[in-house]
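Researcher: Let's do a round of design. I'm pasting the structure tokens now; please hold your answer until I've finished.
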């Protein structure tokens, strides 16, 4: 992932990147994207939550800019917000769920920085999915806890990886 020279938050927020990029420690960071497996799983996660948005009183967004306490701006692959959270063009309040789909180029140190940012910001559920290995981890605590079924405590909200990957496979037929 390439980075550029230091720029201000204001300059970042008033710039357009194709594809969109994150703002990390005063620099623009390109996101790993574009591979089929990553995109297929990201789409399936987005559709999973989107089909339940009304029932679960949530709002699901893809690559939504989120301005964190650290001063960084991250774009989780999929964000699930409580429906009663006011809409912002760049969110400044934590989403209920941040889902990240790993890419082969993702480096552990960068992923750990992302998790630390999300924890510091107060995101209640931080989930990672590996589309190649078809496994997932709950990283909410900072630890990598293997999960096949993600659940939001005290709610009906869940994400079942077996169902998700069946949908991915069905779309590939």
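Researcher: That's everything. Go ahead.
Model: Designed sequence:
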């Amino acid at each position: 992932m390439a980075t550029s020279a230091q720029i201000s938050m204001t300059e970042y927020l008033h710039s357009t990147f194709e594809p969109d990029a994150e703002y990390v420690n005063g620099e623009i960071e390109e996101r790993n994207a574009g591979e089929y497996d990553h995109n297929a799983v990201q789409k399936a996660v987005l559709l999973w939550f989107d089909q339940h948005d009304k029932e679960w009183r949530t709002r699901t967004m893809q690559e939504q800019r989120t301005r964190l306490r650290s001063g960084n701006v991250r774009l989780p692959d999929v964000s699930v917000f409580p429906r009663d959270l006011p809409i912002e063009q760049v969110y400044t309040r934590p989403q209920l769920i941040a889902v990240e789909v790993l890419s082969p180029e993702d480096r552990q140190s960068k992923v750990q920085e992302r998790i630390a940012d999300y924890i510091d910001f107060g995101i209640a559920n931080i989930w990672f999915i590996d589309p190649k290995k078809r496994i997932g981890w709950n990283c909410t605590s900072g630890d990598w806890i293997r999960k096949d079924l993600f659940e939001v405590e005290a709610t009906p909200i869940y994400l079942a990886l077996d169902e998700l990957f069946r949908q991915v496979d069905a779309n590939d037929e």
